[in-house]
């Protein structure tokens, strides 16, 4: 393997043009535990902290990485082998640059029962526990409440000392902190969920209530769960990314590529202090909602508008979807006629201006963000990103034909084959049930909408169900391209 192996010992030997930590990593002390340490966290939240450390601040806020699933162990091994350093490669349309970041100082052992994680979070030096565990990882039931019947939640309620979930581990650590006379930490959700802090509070306090009501009240009263909005496009790491980091002269087994854009808006409600992330570009506010709605509805919903059509037509990346005339035309029309009317402006940005920004970002050919990655976990992303817009449009009598088309494309995609006959591999935690519903809906479109855990009562709304049935029938009969063309022509 070519390139200089990344480690603390080799930082000074890196190619001169590559930025690297200027602070003494040996003097950093932990202040944050981050659960779910994937590419996005390292390119986003950890980068903001790294930049603050570069300015000589926040050296007592270093990150301890953590996971709660066995598959996290492979990344842990790779990062520990390079002293938890990460090479970030920024891919702008016309240039690229690299930076090695060092805000993370350890990755906790991953064990059944999560004892190392609980012990770390019980340490009073830890003042923030942050999470990126995917939109579908918060055990939300179809009514929006905590899914207390889920086997993982039921297990943690019955075995508080041996939790399976991140939330069970957080409750166990908070119990230890209270017993030792320490205050709680702030729980900071960094996933793409509307009201993500409230959802995290529901998971932690709700689980604590099942175990020990007095503890739940203590957490609810003294803890903090600020809402936040995070934004940057960060592709998965594969052979191309590994080759790219080698090309710039570094042997990094876990590099991260990302676009040349970041945004982080955080509700300024912390119970145990916080880093001054605003000094390096984050926005603290008392109202995240408008920023959150703009991003989730235009960017995250927009990703789903593109990805399902792209998968069906074997278009490999989001940038390629934006270059595909029929997909791009559908995307733009759905956005202007059916999404933007349900988005409010934020300080300094109109919905149309934000869409123009998103179109430039999505079209960046240097970002090889696959349609498969973006289409992953549609059973969480469609209810989280698209269906709330659909409900608002139905409530106000607005058009929904394009949103119905998007749902029909997803339904067809879940049949498990592209239009060229290639197989779409499992791409959702509920893939088997989605495939079954998709194949049943080929002759009976209502079989797809009958998935009440996803659609609730939307099957009973003729203004949506009728165009959905028409589009799905057309897609099966004439193909995706015909449906896209028909929609654009209306």
UniProtKB/TrEMBL annotation:
InterPro entries: 6-PGluconate_DH-like_C_sf (IPR008927), 6PGD_dom2 (IPR013328), Mannitol_DH (IPR000669), Mannitol_DH/Oxidoreductase (IPR050988), Mannitol_DH_C (IPR013118), Mannitol_DH_N (IPR013131), NAD(P)-bd_dom_sf (IPR036291). This is Mannitol dehydrogenase family protein. Residues 287-474 form the Mannitol dehydrogenase C-terminal domain. It holds the Pfam family Mannitol_dh_C. The keyword Repeat does not apply. Keywords: Oxidoreductase. One of its GO terms (molecular function) is oxidoreductase activity, acting on the CH-OH group of donors, NAD or NADP as acceptor. Residues 31-278 form the Mannitol dehydrogenase N-terminal domain. The lineage of its organism: Bacteria, Pseudomonadati, Pseudomonadota, Alphaproteobacteria, Rhodobacterales.
């Amino acid at each position: 393997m070519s390139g200089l192996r990344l480690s603390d010992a080799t930082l000074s030997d890196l190619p001169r043009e590559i930025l690297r930590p200027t602070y003494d990593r040996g003097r950093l002390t932990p202040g944050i535990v981050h659960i779910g340490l994937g590419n996005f966290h390292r390119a986003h939240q950890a980068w903001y902290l790294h930049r603050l450390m570069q300015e000589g601040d926040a050296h007592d806020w270093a990150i301890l990485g953590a996971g709660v699933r066995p598959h996290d162990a492979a990344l842990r091994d790779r990062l520990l082998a390079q002293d938890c350093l990460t090479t970030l490669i920024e891919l702008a349309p016309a240039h690229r640059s690299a930076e090695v970041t060092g805000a993370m100082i350890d990755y906790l052992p991953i064990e059944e029962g999560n004892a190392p994680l609980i012990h770390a979070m019980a340490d009073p030096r830890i003042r923030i526990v942050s999470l990126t565990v995917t939109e579908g990882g918060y055990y939300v039931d179809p009514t929006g409440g905590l899914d207390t019947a889920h086997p993982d939640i039921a297990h943690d309620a019955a075995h508080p000392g041996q939790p399976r979930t991140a939330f069970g581990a957080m409750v166990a650590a908070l119990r230890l902190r209270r017993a030792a006379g320490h205050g709680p930490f702030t729980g900071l959700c960094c996933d793409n969920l509307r009201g993500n802090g409230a959802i995290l509070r529901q998971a932690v306090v709700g689980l604590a209530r099942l175990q020990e009501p007095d503890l739940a009240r203590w957490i609810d009263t003294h803890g903090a769960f600020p809402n936040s909005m995070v934004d940057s496009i960060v592709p998965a790491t594969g052979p191309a990314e590994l080759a790219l980091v080698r090309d710039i002269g570094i042997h990094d087994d876990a590099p991260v590529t990302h676009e040349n854009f970041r945004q982080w808006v955080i509700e300024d409600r912390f119970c145990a202090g916080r880093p001054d992330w605003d000094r390096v570009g984050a926005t603290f506010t008392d109202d995240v909602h408008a920023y959150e709605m703009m991003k989730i509805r235009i960017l995250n919903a927009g990703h789903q508008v593109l990805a399902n059509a792209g998968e069906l037509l074997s278009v490999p990346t989001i940038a390629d979807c934006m270059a595909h005339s029929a997909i791009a035309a559908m995307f733009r029309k759905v956005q202007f006629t059916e999404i933007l009317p349900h988005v409010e402006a934020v300080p300094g940005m109109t919905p149309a201006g934000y869409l123009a920004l998103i179109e430039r970002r999505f079209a960046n050919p240097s970002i090889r963000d696959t349609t498969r990655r973006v289409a992953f976990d549609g059973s969480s992303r469609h209810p989280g990103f698209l269906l709330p817009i659909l409900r608002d449009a139905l409530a106000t009598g607005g058009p929904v034909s394009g949103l119905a088309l998007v749902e029909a494309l997803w339904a067809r995609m879940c049949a498990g084959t592209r239009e060229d006959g290639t197989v779409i591999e499992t791409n959702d935690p509920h893939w088997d049930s989605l495939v079954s519903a998709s194949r049943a809906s080929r002759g009976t479109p209502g079989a797809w909408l009958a998935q009440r855990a996803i659609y609730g009562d939307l099957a009973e709304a003729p203004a949506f169900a009728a165009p959905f049935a028409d589009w799905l029938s057309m897609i099966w009969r004439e193909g995706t391209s015909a449906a896209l063309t028909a929609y654009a022509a209306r």
